[in-house]
Amino acid sequence: MNQKIMVVCCLLVLPFAMQAQIGGLLNKVKNKVNQRIDNKTDQAIDKTLDKAEGKSTAPEQKGSSEHSTTTPETAGLKYNATYDFIPGERILYGNSFEQEAIGELPTGWNTNGTGEVITINKYDGKWLRLHNPFVYLSNNQKPFGENYTIEFDVIMQLKNNGWMYPEISVALISTNGEPSTGNNFLNDYKKYEAVVATVLPGEYKSSKVNLNAYSDNQHYFKGDPKPFGNLEQWYGTPVHIAIQVQKERFRMWVNEEKLFDVPKGIPVKYAMNQLLFQVGRTNYKEDQYGIYLSHIRVAAGKADTRHQLIDEGRFSTTAILFNVNAATIQPASGAVLKEIADVLSQVKEVRIKIIGHTDSDGDDKANLTLSQKRAAAVKNALVNEYGIDAARIITDGKGELQPVADNKTNEGKAQNRRVEFVKE
Asked: Three-class SS of residue 283?
């Protein structure tokens, strides 16, 4: 009798035991996956912080800060066919911190906390590290006008510890004639006018982006947080932010995905003239997260591609963007290239020469070679991605020999890094 009872008990307990074992196995797998993810994230953060602290993690590349060829080139250009952002042509403000001292806040910037320029071993160029819970004002001095574009790259080095990620905001503000880096705008930047886009990073597709506008410290436009789960796949990598303002219209893209197209999102009582960045509060420690900013570009005006190329015989653009130290075209240039390809497709008898230009940083010969490679990369994109006949295009490069602006300023350098299309 006792044996029968024991057998019945075993049969009753067996499913629960199996379930417990399976559950335990699943938990082990889940924990192992999380552990690996955490280890990789820790390694990435450690490398970044080592670099910020001046510790050597990899041999330094020597050569031009902007034009040495250290990044692999690609023959084709992969882009989002629906991406219709075209940067302005006339550079109003540009800053990639090339001339700034490591470990210091960029010259002319202001903050109510701390920030420092660093290098990151995995990515080219210099980056400004932002900290919480602080506000940062750029050193821009020029008004933006009615129609302009803004671009910048941001790296969000985030690791899921179950805590609250910091919010990250970019704002267009008006200082209404007051000094654009005045201390009062660190605490009261909605005083005149401000348009604020706030990224709320999350996990498991919970990330959001919000848009609000203010005039005289009152709400002018109030948006609802827009879900943007795709953001989470880019933690630890550069994310390209693009903004276009056309009077009252505000449009914004994140890595070529359009998030906002608000017809009346911009108050127009005052003129916008300053960029502001802000990092919100978080319970992460300083060595557990990183927010890095670079490649800021504000530009006005849109070129009439067809008129300039076909009627005037020459079209020059700074809107074809390349990776730093390389001839690799950035995907964000797709809309500009498509516009040029459309003109060439419509006027099939036209033959063109593509000429690359650089700024004066680095070695003359290296700049000449890079300008030639960049021109060739543009031709490859037009031929391979847009179907333009290769026989209609020749290429050349002038390096730093034909500047159109002062190479002593960031804005001048950005204007000199251009691609010309000349009708043959």
From this structure: coil
pTM, rounded to two decimals: 0.76
One-character DSSP codes across 340-403: HHHHHHHSTT--EEEEEE--S-S-HHHHHHHHHHHHHHHHHHHHHHH---GGGEEEEEEETSS-
Which CATH entry fits the domain spanning 90-300: 3.30.930.10, 1.20.1070.10, 2.60.120.200, 2.60.40.10? Answer: 2.60.120.200
Q: Give 58's DSSP letter.
A: S
Residue-wise pLDDT tens digits, 49-67: 444 434 334 333 333 334 3
Phi then psi dihedrals of residue 371, to 5 deg: -65, -35
* Cα four-point dihedral sign 378, 324, 44, 256: negative
**CA-to-CA dists, residue 296 to 128, 209, 223, angstroms:** 11, 20, 25
| Strand-pair category, 168-174 with 123-130 | unpaired
Give the pLDDT confidence of 221-264 residue by residue, as tens digits.
Answer: 999 999 999 999 999 999 999 999 999 999 999 999 999 999 99
- Angstrom distance (rounded) from CA 276 to CA 152: 12
